[in-house]
Specification:
heterodimer, A: 229 residues, alpha+beta, 9 helices, 7% strand, B: 214 residues, 4-stranded mixed beta sheet, 4 strands
Chain lengths: 229, 214
């Protein structure tokens, strides 16, 4: 009985000692993958990770000092306390979320679904959404923007259908997939108010995130402010 | 316990090869392997789409019928019990996850464009454009592999299982395609001699390409 009690105290103490992540996050408020990480930090009330803005519109990601840390001059970038640096929102999110049991898959099936989404996020969702955003915001090419919206349509239709049946991307539980997905999709609204109108379940999902999930409203507002929209 | 279930794949599909290679490497005989004949559209058949609505390969079916896709997800699932493939520190985990992000958005994005233009559309102009697009990636990895044995360092990781099948298929596009990247060529030779299952992984691809007369 004494051993069981000591084991319980040890486990409980270990869980209490899961410290929040520390380090430095380099990013920009309008970059979708940066928003994913920044949103999670706000959601989890993390004040231990310092946030530094990289002026990507002014080319700061190509400055020698930044490239020395992040040779691919990407944002977001993360610097651990000992100076070890790495990039990619997937890697950073998984690092900063390590102590958060609520966002860990609870079983092999949940883990499989989450990893399945990670694969699709880059090859489908992000690939197509960034093409639309770049064509609209930077190239100001209406034809390419519309072409991009045609390409992303099957993805949006599929997720619209999924979100008609459940609260979040992978079910009724918030997961890291939502932190990656929402910033890619909400920015499509910048193309025009009618862009997401054919996908009412996605719109309702974004409204749910706004009202129910800490940090999301500020994430989207911050992106708008950063671009002067 | 080693993973069990059913892997659906094709010997020419790079992500299928990643998983099949890992299963051979780890000596796994409990995952059944089924070939999905992409060339005749078997991945679009109702039976397959019922399991894998995105009609992708590879696909994995757990013993209770739960199905999921994406090579990343399947590789992580079948290697879950393999301590040698688990990152040992937060930094190793960060480096692996960093590669996993880049694999889809950089390596696979460009290599599959090149291969699809070669295999499916035979569009020479797009193939050449694809080879130009992938050049910075190949140069970058060529430089890395001049300093270390594997993609992420001197230890084999899941990143190698994903990377090698994307890059080795460049040789199918043209005999000298990888000639400018001698460190990558030596890396692939190292995998062939030192890493169980890789020789069969690439051999199976060549056999299938010959059978398809490609």
């Amino acid at each position: 009985l004494k051993l069981q009690f000591l084991y319980f105290i040890g486990e409980h103490h270990t869980k209490l000692n899961k410290m929040p992540a520390t380090g430095i996050l380099y990013g920009h408020a309008f970059s979708q993958p940066c928003r994913s990480v920044q949103w999670y930090l706000d959601y989890s009330d993390n004040t231990a990770v310092e946030r530094k803005v990289v002026d990507v519109l002014g080319g700061e990601q190509k400055a020698a000092e930044y490239v020395a840390k992040f040779p691919q001059h990407q944002v977001p970038g993360f610097e651990m306390e000992d100076g070890f640096c790495f990039a990619e929102s997937l890697a950073i999110l998984k690092h900063v979320v390590q102590g958060d049991e609520t966002l860990k898959p609870g079983c092999p099936k949940e883990e499989a679904r989450l990893n399945e989404y990670f694969g699709r996020h880059y090859s489908q969702v992000r690939k197509f959404s960034t093409e639309v955003i770049f064509a609209h915001l930077f190239a100001k090419d209406a034809e390419k923007t519309q072409a991009g919206l045609v390409v992303i349509k099957p993805q949006l239709e599929s997720y619209n259908e999924t979100l008609g049946k459940q609260n979040y991307l992978l079910g009724d539980k918030l997961t890291l997939a939502d932190f990656l997905f929402a910033p890619e999709v909400d920015q499509l609204a910048w193309v025009g108010p009618e862009t997401l109108a054919p996908y009412p379940n996605i719109l309702k999902y974004l409204e749910r995130l706004t009202s129910d999930v800490k940090g999301y409203k500020e994430s989207f507002a911050g992106a708008n402010t950063a671009l002067g929209l | 316990m080693p993973a069990s279930g059913i892997l659906y794949g094709h010997p020419v599909s790079q992500p299928s090869r990643s998983v099949q290679w890992y299963l051979d490497y780890s000596g796994n005989t409990t995952v059944e392997r089924k070939v999905v004949d992409l060339m005749v559209g078997a991945h679009m058949e109702p039976d397959y789409v019922a399991k894998f609505p995105n009609h992708q390969v590879p696909g994995f079916e757990m013993e209770d019928g739960f199905c999921f896709a994406e090579s990343l997800a399947i590789l992580k699932h079948v290697s879950a019990g393999d301590e040698t493939m688990q990152p040992q520190t937060a930094k190793e985990e960060a480096i692996l996850n960093e590669y996993l992000g880049r694999h889809y958005s950089q390596v696979r994005k460009f290599s599959s464009d090149v291969f699809i233009y070669f295999v499916l559309t035979k569009d020479e102009e797009k193939k050449q454009a694809g080879l130009v697009a992938i050049k910075p990636q190949l140069e970058s990895y060529n430089e890395k592999l001049g300093k270390q044995k594997y993609i992420l360092g001197d230890k084999l990781t899941l990143a190698d299982f994903l990377f090698a099948p994307e890059v080795d298929q460049m040789e199918a596009v043209g005999k000298d395609t990888l000639a400018p990247y001698q460190n990558i060529v030596k890396y692939l030779e190292r995998l062939t001699t030192d890493v169980k299952g890789y020789k069969e992984c690439i051999g199976g691809m060549w056999t299938e390409l010959e059978r398809l007369n490609l």
